TrEMBL record:
Residues 56-158 form the Pyridoxamine 5'-phosphate oxidase N-terminal domain. Binds 1 FMN per subunit. GO terms for biological process: pyridoxine biosynthetic process. Its cofactor is FMN. This is Pyridoxamine 5'-phosphate oxidase. Keywords: Flavoprotein, FMN, Oxidoreductase. Belongs to the pyridoxamine 5'-phosphate oxidase family. It comes from Actinacidiphila rubida. It holds the Pfam family PNPOx_N. The lineage of its organism: Bacteria, Bacillati, Actinomycetota, Actinomycetes, Kitasatosporales. Residues 198-236 form the Pyridoxine 5'-phosphate oxidase dimerisation C-terminal domain. SUPFAM superfamilies: FMN-binding split barrel.
Amino acid sequence: MDGEEPGDGGGRDTAADDEALLARMRAAPVLAGPLPRFAPEDAPNTPGPLFARWLDRALAEGVPEPHVVTLSTASRDGVPSARVLMLRGVDTADCACLFASDAESPKGRDLAANPRAALTWYWPAHGRQIRMTGTVGTLGEDAARRDYLGRSAASRAAGFTGRTSLPLSGPGEYDRARRAAQDLIAAEPGRVPDGHTLYRLRAQEAEFFQADPARFHLRVRYTRSGDGWTRTLLWP
Ligand SMILES: Cc1cc2nc3c(=O)[nH]c(=O)nc-3n(C[C@H](O)[C@H](O)[C@H](O)COP(=O)(O)O)c2cc1C
């Protein structure tokens, strides 16, 4: 899928265009199925194994990028923001998820100020949404190092361009930073960027939504309570 969308650069800002866009959205199929079956009464007593089972099935059946997840954070003042990132590991026994980022990025600063966050997955081909909320901690330098050095050279080089989310003056500046990063990892393949951090969200709540083409969706929420979990069916 190459090239720019037709009409890029303006010319589609009228109310009629918006109406037409809405009509096309309405015509687009959603939850068409066939979708997998989910029997909440057979769900395990803890959410970790259910998450692992759903993720494993998504991977096995070729659901596109099921390990890409939306991370929502909020600043100390409660200003929310969300972005997608890659899941870097799961701890099924404790229902915790790992992800990696730059501690100096906006999300890293949000998490340092306010460690409460949410993860959301949506796998359209399975009609499944999973939501977890919890508290985020960081793993140590060794774990961050292993995570980083296990990546492809391209991904390691990208991590050294740094300055996530700061304004970029133009393609020239980016190109120079990319080249410098490629030279750096070629010269020092064991080097890890200072801010590279492996985060761990320990779920306090985990919710599983199984869509139904007939719209009789099923939702199950697990809430941590002491050493165990309570499991509740929710109205969809
Ligand atoms: C498919 C995909 C995977 C991504 N994976 C990561 C990731 O693992 N870690 C990360 O920090 N950013 C990742 N990003 C970039 C983030 O979405 C985001 O643009 C960037 O981290 C800046 O976010 P922030 O300004 O909220 O900190 C990914 C983006 C896409 C589209």
